[in-house]
């Protein structure tokens, strides 16, 4: 299934393989738990007949999908062969198959130590695929915004200048040049906004509280909303090694405000930022239409998933719920464990 000279693959293929790998890993873990429970209860539970072939099938599929990780593939093949022998033994009741299964599983146990680094990569493939999908989504949004807004207006300005030049009318050419100058100024602002979205330099220059306050003021001015900012604690944190947390909090605030503007139909937003030594918490509340009758995890789109992933990447928590009769409350908490360790040492 894997070759040394892979052809050009679409972006969906690695994502589909990552999803299949995650499913196989989940089947393997559930089947191992069921097999262990049945073994400890002396075959009093029925799942053992199903769990052994399930483990063999799932690990065999993972071995086929595991490209470039030879040790992990060998380990999976050993496990697959061992549980295949156990599956056969459930039907044949032969001592020889028991010995074969035991040999493969003992070899797998011994080989698990050198193969563990590659196994860890395999286990994290599902999260990596999700992050790739998230990055592709943002790249598509960026390309669409550049094409629909910047490129289209620049092309329209070029056509207007060409039409005015063809008329050989100085007044028409002057008016077209003035219009082009205004368009260029507007698109320069658009490009600055896109650049700030991709890499917000304000976080490094101003600090977290000032950056979030500036972001809220910008959203309020551009969309005619009332955005109140409440900051508790003067300093984002005292550990220089936690700079990535600042950017993650800023991104969550940015995405939450964007969701309110696009989907909530709200008029008033409250953004509360609490910066303490033990962690940073961000709460964004609006008076819009809320999340609807479905649970938030069911209706999550890319924006909500991105906020959740950023929180989980730093060991934090994320929640989104409907606030009473209307509106939404989004809350993200980022613990600063490494700062506590640095201060204690």
TrEMBL record:
Q: Which InterPro entries match?
A: HATPase_C_sf (IPR036890), HATPase_dom (IPR003594), Sensor_HK_TwoCompSys (IPR050482), Sig_transdc_His_kin_sub3_dim/P (IPR011712)
> What Gene3D superfamilies does UniProt report for this protein, alphabetically?
Histidine kinase-like ATPase, C-terminal domain (3.30.565.10)
Q: Which residues form the Histidine kinase/HSP90-like ATPase domain?
A: 244-338
What EC number(s) would the UniProt record show?
2.7.13.3
Pfam families found in the cross-reference section:
HATPase_c (PF02518), HisKA_3 (PF07730)
Cite the entry's keywords alphabetically.
ATP-binding, Kinase, Membrane, Nucleotide-binding, Phosphoprotein, Transferase, Transmembrane, Transmembrane helix, Two-component regulatory system
Q: Which GO terms describe its cellular component?
A: membrane
* One term of GO molecular function: protein dimerization activity
Q: What class of enzyme is it?
A: transferase
Q: Which reaction does it catalyse?
A: ATP + protein L-histidine = ADP + protein N-phospho-L-histidine
> Which named protein is this?
histidine kinase
């Amino acid at each position: 299934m894997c070759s040394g000279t892979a052809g050009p693959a679409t972006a969906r293929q690695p994502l589909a393989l990552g999803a299949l790998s995650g499913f196989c890993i989940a089947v393997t873990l559930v089947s191992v738990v069921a097999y262990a429970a049945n073994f400890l209860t002396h075959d009093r539970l029925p799942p053992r007949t199903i769990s052994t072939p399930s483990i063999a099938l799932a690990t065999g599929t993972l071995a086929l999908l595991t490209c470039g990780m030879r040790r992990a593939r060998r380990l999976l093949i050993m496990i697959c062969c061992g549980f295949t022998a156990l599956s056969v033994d459930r039907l044949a009741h032969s001592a020889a198959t028991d010995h074969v299964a035991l040999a493969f599983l003992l070899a797998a146990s011994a080989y698990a130590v050198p193969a563990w680094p590659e196994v860890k990569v395999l286990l994290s493939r599902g999260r990596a695929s999700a992050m790739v999908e998230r990055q592709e989504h943002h790249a598509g949004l960026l390309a669409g915004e550049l094409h629909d807004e910047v490129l289209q207006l620049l092309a329209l300005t070029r056509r207007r200048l060409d039409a005015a030049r063809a008329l050989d009318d100085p007044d028409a050419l002057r008016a077209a040049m003035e219009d082009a100058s205004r368009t260029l100024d507007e698109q320069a602002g658009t490009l600055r906004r896109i650049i700030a979205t991709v890499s917000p330099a304000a976080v490094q220059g101003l600090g977290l509280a000032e950056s979030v306050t500036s972001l809220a003021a910008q959203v309020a001015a551009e969309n005619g909303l009332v955005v109140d900012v409440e900051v508790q604690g003067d300093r984002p944190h005292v550990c220089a090694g936690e700079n990535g947390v600042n950017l993650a909090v800023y991104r969550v605030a940015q995405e939450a405000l964007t969701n309110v503007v696009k989907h909530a139909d709200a008029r008033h937003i409250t953004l509360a930022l609490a910066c303490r030594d033990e962690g940073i918490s961000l709460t964004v509340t609006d008076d819009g239409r809320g999340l609807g009758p479905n649970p938030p995890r069911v209706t999550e789109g890319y924006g909500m998933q991105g906020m959740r992933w950023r929180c989980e990447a730093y060991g934090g928590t994320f929640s989104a719920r409907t606030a009473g009769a209307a509106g939404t409350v989004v809350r993200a908490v980022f613990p600063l464990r490494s700062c506590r360790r640095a201060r204690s040492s």
